[in-house]
Amino acid sequence: MKSTAKIICFLLLCVVFFQSCKLGRFVFYNFANITDYKIFPYRTIETSSSPFIFPEARHPKLPEDIETDNNNEPFDAYLDRTKTVAFLVIQDDSIQYERYFNKYAKESIVASFSMAKSITSMLIGIAIEEGKIQSVNEPVTNYIPELKPNGFGTVTIKHLLQMTSGLDFNESYTNPFGHAATFYYGTNLRKAINKLKLKDAPGEKFDYTSGTTQLLGLVLERALRTQTISSYLEEKIWKPLGMEYDATWSLDRKKDGLEKTFCCLNARARDFAKLGRLYLRNGNWDGTQIIPEQWVKASTKLDTAEHSAPFYQYQWWLTKNAEQFYAQGILGQYIFVDPHKNLIIVRLGEKTSKVNWPRLIAQVANSY
């Protein structure tokens, strides 16, 4: 009996160890999953007492069958096979198509992963409008002075927004000692940020890195002073948009934690769709300007004047000629907006299943 008790105590200590440090978390959980909101500490973002509900279309138009390997496959079956857990098509403010798979439902929480980058950009735009941040041309060292010795004196907030900062950051999620694992599984983001360096001069080329958005998160936290990023999202976006459900934002640690702004906003498909509706309407929500219209347009327009990529602006991805734009997460999470069709598509999944989702979603949008 004593030996059994010792084994149980040892196993419990192992679990505590695994959950309390980066390497332990990496070994125990192995790879990012849409249920990772369960393993990290978090702050809650409360919803409004008067939620906005998308009505169902009277005569919904369903997506066409998908052609795969010279065969037509029912769209529902295709989504199920490709590890989709939620797919919504909303046009003219009405739900045309809404399906959930693998025991998921409209109430099911899904981790956003890098869709949170686009949401972080929203909050930066609001903070600039309110004067908490002066402009996109400010050096990040105005807010993170400890990075001056690391050469960040000429890196601006705009460089971060456009992913042209020149940051030296290993984006690999399979390397337990790389930057991405440290930022995702680590327990001290501020300390990790303080170690960052540059590999290129800022403003020279596009290089997508999660560390870049986490720098934006620390800029935002410093600009907000006494308010957390989660409470700012709650006050400025979540409640004004009438989200149907509370959300959470994962932190690096429980005490004095910092939001993982490069990922990890945990919410439901319909509420993600409302964020798309907000940008579809140039930041205006039923008569109230939530995000400055100029910010939305700057975030979603084709602009390579300062060596930014033709497919990326202010933490949003753009399709060819910037006709559509979208937020994107690593496992195939998407908030896709087509202004010309007055249409929003949300896809949430357990995997990408090697599908080119931007192209497929654009095809679905073009069929409406």
From TrEMBL:
The keyword Hydrolase is annotated on this UniProt entry: yes
KW Hydrolase (keyword) present: yes
A Pfam family annotated for this UniProt entry: Beta-lactamase
Classification via InterPro entries: Beta-lactam-related, Beta-lactam/transpept-like, Diverse_Enzym_Activities
UniProt superkingdom: Bacteria
Protein keywords: Hydrolase
SUPFAM superfamilies: beta-lactamase/transpeptidase-like
Entry protein name: Serine hydrolase
Chain ranges of the Beta-lactamase-related domain: 78-350
GO molecular function, one term: hydrolase activity
